[in-house]
Design goal:
The complex is a heterodimer. Chain A is an alpha+beta fold. Chain A has one domain (about 20-310, about 375-440). Chain A is about 25% helix and about 25% strand. Chain A is built from 12 helices and 21 strands. The longest helix of chain A is centred in the N-terminal third of the chain and has 26 residues, at about 45-70. In chain B, helix 1 runs antiparallel to helix 9 (about 195-205). Chain B has one domain (about 5-310). Chain B is mostly helical. The chains are: A alpha+beta, B mainly alpha. The interface of A and B includes residues 191 and 230 of A.
């Protein structure tokens, strides 16, 4: 990955105010630019510690939930969640039934999106349990800030974030099926033309492990996974895979996949290799499953959720559905299995025609939709044309689960660059900010 | 080190050297055509044959094999996988996936070189512009080699780039000699000595070897001496034996028990040492060069099988 603030030391202005910047990620011959805003987002450490506990609780419950779904399905038998929750889920993998991965953990790297409403409460907006990305932006943003404002970091209680790569490595290493001191960990990428390739390369480099493609790996008849090196085949213990389930193993999933490794699933099932995240973990980041997370936490942990969900209407429930259909102009409607802000209806900003279209979609496939009230989402001051203005933000912390649990100090703050817009996704022109978790008790001011 | 990345770096090294060699080849032919009077001039058709793309050329260019067509085909034609442009693009593509193993400046330099050259290559380059552009390419390739040497740890990734570069260089130098051999077919050997001397000087200059030849050989420029210099000199970095010695020393440090690549390289050097230069002119020279090229190809195959092969250990 190459990120650079220009000219030379880094800053290239692209706004008349002269103070918004882009972090450039040069890959595959394409410049991927994510607008980077220099005004950091500040969160007091005390508040963050509470959020962090809530995230750990949530991910612990989600992992127990996934493990249950692929094994005994007690939560369904006990009638806590409806059975069609899995039947209708695009990311439920029948091929994973009966498997218990090391430590019972399926989602080793989770990226949950948080928003804050008018009264300052943090809500979880969604969980990303498949192959969440963005952590490299978080790390690079901090590098840029340190270069541009070194004096700010000297004595202000801003908590460091740089240990992510070491934590990720330790998490992955703890999954190794071989009890060796230095297990062979690799990052599996779809290749240089994938839009997140720079992040794959960056993380591999930061962890000091090989970045492999499917064709570099081979599974033998005894289910051993190896990589092809100039010194012959070398064993592989843990694969941090950034390839979608569907492309992971042509023997089991899409037979036309050239990105995957034939036999990888049987090696995983036989416990010869660890996959992070485990195939099938995506079943729990379905937006309908999301609606049930408070019940899921209560069921597995006997605790109330420390971090609330955004209130959510489940269109599969008749009463909720009627409410949603009557209030399409006020709600945000999300399809269960889309991400990146696609396929959504934002009620207050929608036309009558769009609302009619969503009414049809919901009636045709109620299970696939949820409705949420539009929150008075928090904003952060952001450099914009003509000065500084408020822009909506969200926050994506990353939660690592292995023999230990780790939550990033803060996370990636994404910012909608258009006034009033609620869409922060980088694929739709969103930008990002550095996120400062500041310990006010150890001096410094914020 | 991943076999795939080693292979890509090896091919990066080969393609970049090939692009540079092709630039040198075109420049030597331009000089020959300028230096030699009328019907003695070699023309351009031999270049197509020497680069091994006659069939493709004939299918693409039906209006003749003059300077315009041949230089277009060899420099800017993307339909020709062996053109300067295609080769340079392959050098870049092969570096792309492995670039995280290299200092960042190297990838930037490779990109800049490709973008500069591809931007300036157009259908109708004037002779002068063509010469300048090819000289720029040669210098750009040398810069990449320099940045690598000055900033990269000499690990396996570095070794594979160098193996590719030196093996290709041995091949390129024999091809440049081929241009000369082609021009000396039997029946034309009554050529006047002054012309012959001029032609061999052109060959030396195309390999930036004239000055070094003068310093180290200290003889007037004659065919057998130039051949000896370009094939066997132990100090000149573009001579075939120098390049093969580099391959030999790099290959001997690579992991594995299989020493076929090493043995093939040593064997070829012995073959070169045993050749009698005075006898090498005209057809015997062309034949000798063919043999050398076949052996270079065999070394390449052994390298691929030994370190990039998908056969289990």
């Amino acid at each position: 990955m190459q990120s650079e603030v220009l000219p030379h030391s880094g800053l290239r202005t692209h706004s008349p105010a002269g103070i918004t910047f882009r972090v450039y990620f040069e890959d595959a011959g394409v410049d991927r630019a994510m607008p980077f805003d220099l005004i950091p987002r500040v969160i007091p450490k005390k508040e963050w510690d509470r959020v962090s506990k809530g995230l750990q609780q949530r991910v612990r419950a989600l992992n127990l939930f996934i493990d249950d779904l692929y094994n005994d399905q007690k939560i369904i038998r006990d009638g806590v969640v409806p059975a069609d929750l899995i039947d209708g889920s695009e990311h439920f993998r029948e091929q994973c039934r009966g498997i218990s991965p090391p430590l019972g953990i399926w989602a080793h790297v989770c990226g949950s999106d948080l928003v804050r409403d008018g009264d300052g409460t943090f809500y979880v907006l969604e969980d990303n349990l498949r192959i969440p990305s963005g952590v490299s932006y978080m790390l690079e943003n901090r590098q840029v800030m340190k270069r541009v404002f070194p004096e700010l970091f000297a004595d202000s209680g801003i908590q460091p974030i740089d240990e992510y790569a070491s934590q990720l490595f330790d998490t992955l290493a703890s999954l190794s099926p071989r009890p060796v001191e230095y297990p062979n960990v690799v990052v599996l990428t779809p290749g240089a033309f994938n839009s997140a390739y720079f992040e794959h390369a960056y993380l591999a480099q930061q962890m000091g492990v090989e970045l492999v493609e499917g064709r570099d790996l081979v599974v033998d008849d005894e289910n051993n996974v190896s990589m092809r090196t100039i010194a012959g085949l070398q064993p592989v213990d843990v694969i941090y895979r950034r390839v979608d389930d569907a492309f992971l193993d042509p023997e089991v999933f899409r037979p036309d996949s050239l990105l995957g490794v034939p036999g990888l699933m049987r090696a995983w099932r036989a416990g010869k290799v660890a996959l992070a995240n485990a195939p099938g973990a995506g079943v729990a980041d379905d937006k309908v499953v999301y609606a049930w997370v408070p019940e899921i936490i209560r069921y597995y942990l006997g605790e109330e959720a420390l971090l609330p969900n955004v209130p959510t209407y489940k269109c599969s429930v008749a009463e909720d559905r009627e409410y949603v259909l009557e209030h399409l102009d006020q709600l945000v409607i999300k399809p269960a299995n889309e991400s990146g802000g696609y396929g959504m209806l934002i009620g207050p900003h929608s036309s009558a025609k769009e609302q009619r279209k969503f009414a049809r979609l919901i009636r045709a496939d109620p299970r696939n939709y949820i409705g949420q009230p539009t929150l008075a989402l928090s904003t952060c001051p952001t450099f914009v044309t003509g000065g500084v203005g408020p822009r909506h933000v969200d926050l994506r912390p990353f939660i690592l689960s292995g023999s230990q649990t780790y939550v990033t100090t803060g996370g990636l703050t994404r910012v909608a660059m258009k006034a009033g817009s609620l869409v922060v996704n980088s694929s739709q022109g969103g930008g990002s900010k550095d996120t400062w978790i500041v310990d006010t008790s150890t001096g410094g001011s914020n | 080190m991943l076999a795939r990345l080693a292979e890509q770096l090896y091919w990066h090294g080969r393609y970049l050297e090939r692009a540079e060699g092709l630039a040198r080849l075109i420049n030597v032919n331009s000089h020959l055509n300028l230096d030699l009077p009328g019907k003695r001039a070699p023309g351009w058709e031999p270049l197509v044959r020497i680069t091994g793309n006659s069939e493709l050329f004939e299918s693409l260019y039906e209006d003749g094999s003059g300077e315009r067509q041949v230089t277009r085909f060899l420099i800017a034609d993307e339909r020709n996988p062996g053109s300067v442009l295609s080769t340079l693009s392959l050098a870049r593509e092969n570096m792309r996936a492995a670039r995280d193993l290299l200092p960042r400046e190297v990838w930037e330099q490779m990109n800049r070189l490709y973008l500069d050259v591809s931007e300036q290559i157009s259908g109708n380059l004037s002779k002068r512009r063509r010469h300048e552009l090819l000289a720029e390419l040669i210098l750009g390739s040398q810069q990449i080699a320099g940045v690598l040497m000055g900033t990269m740890s000499q690990d396996f990734a570095y070794d594979f780039i160098l193996i590719g570069r030196y093996l290709e260089r041995a091949d390129v130098t024999t091809r440049i000699l081929d241009v000369r051999a082609d021009d000396l077919l039997p029946g034309e050997s009554d050529e006047l000595p002054p012309f012959e001397s001029i032609q061999w000087m052109s060959v030396l200059k195309s390999l930036t070897g004239y000055q070094m030849y003068r310093r180290h050989v200290r003889l007037r420029v004659t065919g057998p001496d130039v051949l000896k210099f370009l094939l066997r000199d132990r100090l000149f970095p573009r001579s075939v034996v120098f390049s093969l010695k580099a391959v030999e020393s790099l290959v001997s440090q690579l992991p594995g028990e299989d020493d076929r690549a090493l043995r093939a390289t040593t064997g070829l050097m012995r073959h070169l040492d045993s050749a009698r230069m005075v006898k090498l002119k005209g057809e015997p020279l062309a034949k000798f060069i063919d043999e050398i090229q076949v052996e270079i190809g065999e070394i390449g195959q052994h390298i691929s099988l030994t370190w990039f092969g998908s056969a289990p250990e």
